Structure of SAC domain-containing protein:
Amino acid sequence: MLIYTTPSALIIEERGEKLHFNRKNGDFQRKPTESLAVLDEEVQLCGEVELLIGKISYENDQHFLFFVVESSVAAQYRGTSAATRHEIRKIERVIAINLKSETSAIKAQITPGSGTKLKQGTEKLMKFFNPNKEARPQEDVLKLFNDSKDFYFCRDRDVTISSQKFFTKRGIHQTSEESFFWNKNMLTNISNSAEITPEISKFTCPIMQGFVATSQLEITDQINAFLTITIISRRSTRRAGARYLRRGIDESSNVANFVETELILNIFEHELSFVQCRGSIPVFWSQRGFKYRPPLTINRSLEDTQEVFEEHFRRLKAHYDTPLVAVSLVDQRGREHPLAQRFLEHCVKANDPDVTFFSFDLHQHCRGLNFQKLQTLITSMEDTLKTIGFCWVDKTGEVVQRQKGVIRTNCIDCLDRTNLVQGQISLYIVLQQAQRLGIFGPLCEPPEALVQTLQTMWADNGDVISTQYAGTAALKGDVTRNGERKLMGVMKDGYNSASRYYLTHTRDAQRQKAINIVTGQSEVIEKVVEEEENEKEEEENISRMITETIQFLVPTQQTVIAGWGLINACQSSDEIDTVVILTRSSLYIVTYEIDGEKMTDVQIVALEDINSIQVGSSGNNRQCARIETLEGVFIWRPSTVRLFNNAALRLKSLEEANEYIASVAEQIQVGRNMLTSAEGSVIQVARISIPQTSVHRKSMAAMGALLGKIKRVGKNVSPATLSKSASTSSAMTPSTHLEPPAKLIETDGNESDTSEKSESTVSKILKMQFKTTDTPPEPFSSLLPSIAECQTKISLL
C-alpha cells in the first residue's frame, strides 16, 4: 500500500485501486481509477504502509489519517479449507498523517531515520522538563496504539468473529462484530456515513484490542501430529476504558471490561474452539477513593436497575445462545458482599430458566492458598459444561458440533480471580477435546507439555487484559512459567508510591479520552471525584485491607498473632505498600499496589529462618525495622496508622511512630523465640542503611500469575511443584497448576511446652491482638426462600 501526495491531494494506492483525500479539508474524494501519470499535478511517492486504520478530525480543521506501518505475525487462522492459512498480525507501529503536512514530513513519519528518532527523543525530554507544553491532538491516540501494542488485524478473515460464527456463515457475506470492531468509528469518519463504503473497505479491515498468542506442540505418543493452540481475547468497545473510570453497567446495558476469549485447537485438519466471556457486575456501582480497598457503593435501587440488567442478559443470550451461565467470584462476606447480594437478587428477580448462576467465594474457598478447592466449582459446573459443549469444524469446513451458550465470569474488576477460573474452565474443556481427538486416553495422564502451554497462555492473557483495564503490567522476564514459578528479579520503582499513584490516574484520564475518540463514545469522560478521604475512612480501609489479607492467605488452622500495614523503607512516601502478618510459625509478607486491590508478591518466611532483627534510624530521626532472613533483608518503616485489636489508630507523632515500629520488631522476635525456644532479642543500632534495592518483589501481573509467585521461604518448607496428573490438574489453576505442598496448611497442635514456659507479658498481649469474632450468619440467607421458588438455576457454593 503506497502513499502519494500532490499539492492538493493525498493518494493511497494498492493493487491498482486508489483513494483520494483533499489535503485542505480532509474530505474523501471519489475519483475514477486512473493512472497517476495522467494527473495534472506533480506526484511524489512518500512511502509504503500496511493498513489504513481510519481518520480523526480535530478542532482547528486538522485532519489525520492513521496507518499501520509495522506489524508482526501473532498467529494464523485456518481458512474455509483446511490447507488455507490467514495471518493474524499484531500492530507494532502506527503513524498519524496530518493531511496538511509537507511531503518531507510525511516521508519522515513513514520511514523515520536516526535524525528523526533523535528529534523525537529530544521532544520527549523537553516535554518532561516542560509538562505544560500543549500536546499535539493526535498524540493520545498514537500512545493508545503504540505504547500497549495490543491491537490486531487479519486482512483475509475478520478478527472480530469467532470460529463458530465464521464457519457457520461461510460463503455468506459476514458482518463484523461491531462491539469488537475498534476502528469502525474511524473508518466511518472517512465517508461521513454510518457504514464503511466498498471503496474504503479495500484498503482496510477491522482491528481489535485484546490478546493473541499461539503455540504448536508435537504429539508423539501413539499418534504423530502437530497440535496448534491459539488463544484470542477480544475487548469490547462498549463502555471501554480504564478501571477507575469505567465500572459496572451503563444505561445501554453495556458493562465495563467486557472481554470475549476464544481458545482454538487445530489438529488433523480439524478445528475445535471454546468461547467464554467476562464483564463487570451488571449493576450501577462505584467506589469512593482509591487507596487501601475503599468500600464499594451501589448507586441505584434494585427496581431502577432490573430492566437494564435483564437487557444485558438478553443480549448475551441472543449472541451466544443458551444456557447463559453467570459465575460470580465476588466475596460473600465483607466489603464485596453487597455487590454479591445485589447480583443474586437481580438473578432471582429475573426468574429466567435459561440462566444458571453460580456464586463461588474464591477467597473463602481457597483460603490458605488451598487452590484444590477450585475443583468444587468445576465439579458443580460439569453438567452445565457438557450442555454448552464446544465448536467442532471438520476438515471440509463443516460445523459438526456447535457450542450452545456461554459462561460469563466476573469478580470485582474481572481480572485476577476471573482469569484464574476462566483458565481452569478452559483446561477442563481442552482435556475433554483432547480425549475426543484421541490425543490421550481417559485413563492416561494428559501430556505435560499441553498443560504447561495452557498455563503460560492463560497467565500471559491475564497480564495483558489486566494492563488494558487496570494499567498494570507484568515483568514477564522475572517470572518462571513452570515448576515452582518464582519471581526472580528485583525491581526498584522509578517513582515513589504517591507519585506513581497520582500519575496513574492522570494517565488513565488521557487514555480514556483517546479510547472515547477512537470508539466514538461520548466525549464527556465520567469524572471520578477524588474526595479527600478523612482520617476515619482511611483507618477503616487499612483495617479492612489487613483483615481481608489474613482471611485469604492464612489457613484457618493457624493462629494469627498480629498484622501490620507497613512501608517499604526504599520508598519515600507515606503510603502503605506492605502487609506483614505474624502467625505462630511464619511471617507472611504481602506487597500491594498503592490502591490495595492487587497483590503483587507474597512471601512466607518461617520464623526459625529469621537470622536477626534490628531497629535503628534511617535518617530524619525516623526508625526502621530490619529483618534478615535466609531469603534476604526486609526493611520497613511505620505508616501513619497502627493496628490494635482489629482497629486502626492514628499515630500522632514521630515518637509514637518510632515506638510502633520498635514494637513490631519486638513482637516478631518474641514470636520467633516462642517457636524456637531461643532467647534472642532485637538489636538496637544507631543507623540502618537503606539500599538502592530491597527484596520486596514488584510485579504487576494478574492473579493467575501472582499465585505462582507465592514463595514459602525456608529450609523446612516444601516448594509447590507442577502437577503432572490428570486427577490433580483439573483441580488446579492453569496459570499456576500447583500441587499443595505438604506444609502448606500448618496446625498449631504441636507447639512445644518450652514455648509456653518462656511466654512473656508481651507474648500474652500478642495473642490478644486479633480477637476471634463470632461466626457470621450464612450469606444470602434472606434470599433462600425466593431462590427455591425462582426458575433461574442458582448454586451457592
User: Anything to note?
Assistant: The chain is about 30% helix and 25% strand. The domain at 554-691 is CATH 2.30.29.30 (PH-domain like). Residues 562 and 582 are 5 Å apart (CA to CA). The chain has a mean pLDDT of 78.
